[in-house]
Amino acid sequence: xxxxxxxxxxxxxxxxxxxxxxxxxxxxxxxxxxxxxxxxxxxxxxxxxxxxxxxxxxxxxxxxxxxxxxxxxxxxxxxxxxxxxxxxxxxxxxxxxxxxxxxxxxxxxxxxxxxxxxxxxxxxxxxxxxxxxxxxxxxxxxxxxxxxxxxxxxxxxxxxxxxxxxxxxxxxxxxxxxxxxxxxxxxxxxxxxxxxxxxxxxxxx
Length: 205
Description:
Blueprint lengths: L6 H23 L3 E8 L7 E4 L9 E9 L10 E9 L4 E4 L7 E2 L4 E2 L8 E3 L6 E5 L14 E10 L2 E10 L11 E8 L6 E2 L9
Antiparallel strand pairs: 1-12, 2-3, 3-4, 4-9, 5-8, 5-10, 6-10, 7-13, 10-11, 11-12
């Protein structure tokens, strides 16, 4: 009777098991968050950009920068105020406060269907909406070093509602930068699912 060895079979089984575990680990490490890296620089020579969060060929939001010149008082120079504003296409929304102003958040804040009291998702029809105005060398609503702020957005993709964030950073340059840059952005690819400010896809270790 011919001897039969289980070693080759067990060896193949071990390889198959290892491959299955590796595949499972990769799947577990996948994330539904779609992340994009900037920066997109906004300045006097390039004051406007359109952002297509889901890259479907349709712009979701427009961002603009500029400088407002205040009327001078007698014997005093006019004031110059840098600003950052936005326009939502296709009835997309921002997180707004009770007064209808955009609310900037810090890393970790959860953007989703449930909101804090006095905050809601909305936009202004047919007009731009201010994100922030500079006050001296600072931008209110920005914190940290370098100063950063997260804009919460809600937009339609393939007819479904998705939540995302856009991070603005004031570069620490000398002389100081006039405007924030769009550093990066991300959105939750699952409809009606919350995402935390700064959340990125999981990566296999």
